[in-house]
Amino acid sequence: MDDELMKKAVVYVDSREAALKESGDVILSRAEIFSELGDVVNGTKPALSERTSVFKSLGMGIQDAVSAKLVFDHWKARP
């Protein structure tokens, strides 16, 4: 992603820790992370919809576990 876009945008991430270690877009652009998505969902940080927003998702183990459970439950429920 363009460095200037990253610097000007409101950057949301799924995990601040992971983004600062693994996201080349965040690290190389030196973009400021505004918030984790969970903080916005919980209402502790606002969603700044009047500005350009970037959501950087690196994936979290819990997302994998929930996805696997949904697939398993669907498979188990088949006739």
Can you offer a commentary on this structure?
This protein has a 3-stranded parallel sheet. The chain is 51% helix and 15% strand. The protein is α/β, with parallel strands linked by helices. It has helices at residues 3-8, 16-22, 24-29, 37-41, 61-76; strands at 10-13, 33-36, 53-56. InterPro entries: NAD(P)-bd_dom_sf, ODC_Mu_crystall, ODC_N. Belongs to the ornithine cyclodeaminase/mu-crystallin family.
Could you give a short description of this structure?
The protein has a single domain, classed as NAD(P)-binding Rossmann-like Domain (Rossmann fold), CATH 3.40.50.720. It contains five helices and three strands. It has helices at 3-8, 16-22, 24-29, 37-41, 61-76; strands at 10-13, 33-36, 53-56.
